[in-house]
């Protein structure tokens, strides 16, 4: 008889679907009367597109955004025929015919995608206009050329969208420039619902909401207003298992490169999480964990499967092989880890590893592990 997956795993990732639903409700409420979609691309930012989207569907979300056709096909299988699923990257050459059979709405980003979509009149699509991101979407010049023709193109415009480059910096002048450019473009689209704001854009206020908002990161607990209190609930809790405890003398080194040298004798816990699990190597010397609410500094370099912590100050009855160290949770959230790693919460989430045993928590929603 084999052991249960939780005992075999080096770390356990708990995903609070109730918190995701609460975050979606808070964002939706903030955006009223605009509708609130949910961005679940990249496997719902690493947290599991199927369980996350099912929980949001039950909560009333009717429009989901993914990045790719394959993500869309997978999500349609998970959600069934009800909700709308839009695909940010639009139809790549040779894939146009695959959207409608799965009920997927493409975001059309360039004149070529628009031209090929016109061949199936009446099939819905979303138009993306670039207002300052210089990434995807019709350029200002392309839109000016096509503006009069687009409403009569035969395409059923489900929405017109654009994306803010600096929404997490409320004072950045590009926000207002993009808003003005977008309002002008949306005005040419014969009443198609307009959507500009993602997570941070929702917090720029009503003029940025238009008819439709589409948050991603904030659903998963990332602070949409860096430097200000986070109104959203933490969604993930990551705990790693202590494999060994070692007494180390003053002057001895810990880990690769002998990069940490003990200033005093102490106890070091080796935990079964490494950069192969998305515990980024840039957390070397900087990150931390928690045992029973007590901070334990990360020592030395993060290696592929292991990371070491100084547990000298923790009661040995709490820090022992088999005990769990909290790596992400109420004490040290996704944004804290991102700051220590020199990155953003988005990257911490999407890097979360495949080796973690995942537990989905929500009394009202699915309780399946994936
Ligand atoms: C076009 C577009 N809209 C919305 C989002 C969601 O953004 P956020 O996760 O900041 O809410 C993204 C994410 O990258 C995006 O690319």
Question: What report would you give on this structure?
Answer:
This protein is an alpha/beta fold and 370 residues long. Helices cover 25% and strands 23% of the residues. Helix 2 (17-31) crosses helix 4 (49-59) and helix 4 crosses helix 5 (69-79). The longest helix has 15 residues, at 17-31. The radius of gyration is 23 Å and the shape is elongated. The chain binds pyridoxal-5'-phosphate. Pyridoxal-5'-phosphate binds at residues 39, 88, 163, 198-199, 214-218.
Supply the key terms.
elongated; alpha/beta; 370 residues; eight-stranded mixed sheet; single chain
Mean pLDDT value: 95
Structural class computed from helices and strand pairing? alpha/beta
Q: What integer value in Å does the Rg equal?
A: 23 Å
Could you estimate the helical fraction of the residues in percent?
25-40%
String of helices and strands: HEHEEHHEHEEHEHEHEHEEEEEEEEEHHE
Q: End-to-end span in angstroms?
A: 21 Å
The counted number of beta strands is: 19
């Amino acid at each position: 008889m084999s052991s249960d997956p939780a005992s075999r795993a080096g770390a356990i990732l708990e995903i609070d679907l109730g918190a995701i639903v609460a975050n979606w409700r808070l964002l939706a409420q903030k955006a009223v009367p605009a509708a609130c979609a949910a961005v679940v691309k990249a496997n719902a930012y690493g947290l599991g597109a199927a369980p996350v989207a099912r929980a949001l569907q039950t909560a009333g979300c009717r429009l989901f955004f993914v990045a790719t056709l394959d993500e869309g096909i997978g999500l349609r299988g998970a959600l069934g025929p009800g909700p709308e699923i839009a695909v940010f990257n639009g139809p790549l050459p040779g894939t146009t015919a695959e959207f409608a059979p799965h009920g997927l709405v493409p975001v059309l980003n360039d004149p070529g995608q628009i031209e090929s979509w016109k061949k199936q009149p009446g099939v819905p699509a979303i138009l993306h206009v670039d207002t300052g991101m210089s990434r995807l979407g019709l350029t200002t010049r392309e839109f000016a050329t096509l503006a009069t023709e687009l409403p009569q193109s035969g395409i059923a415009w489900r929405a017109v969208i654009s994306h803010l480059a600096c929404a997490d910096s409320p004072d950045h002048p590009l926000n207002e420039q993009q808003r003005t450019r977008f309002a002008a473009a949306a005005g040419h689209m014969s009443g198609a619902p307009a959507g500009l704001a993602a997570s941070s854009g929702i917090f720029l206020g009503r003029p940025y909401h238009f008819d439709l908002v589409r948050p991603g990161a904030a659903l998963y607990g990332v602070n949409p207003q860096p430097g200000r209190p986070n109104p959203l609930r933490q969604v993930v809790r990551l705990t790693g298992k202590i494999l060994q405890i070692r007494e180390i003398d003053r002057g001895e080194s810990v880990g690769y490169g002998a990069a940490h040298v003990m200033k005093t004798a102490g106890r070091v816990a080796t935990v079964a999480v490494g950069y192969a699990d998305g515990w980024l190597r840039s957390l070397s010397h900087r990150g931390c964990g928690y045992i029973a609410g007590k901070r334990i500094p990360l020592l030395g370099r993060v290696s592929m499967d292991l990371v070491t912590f100084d547990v000298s100050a923790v009661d040995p009855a709490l820090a022992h092989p088999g005990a769990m160290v909290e790596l992400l949770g109420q004490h040290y959230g996704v944004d804290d880890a991102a700051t220590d790693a020199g990155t953003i919460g988005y990257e911490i989430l999407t890097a979360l590893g495949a080796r973690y045993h995942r537990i989905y928590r929500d009394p009202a929603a699915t309780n399946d592990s994936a």
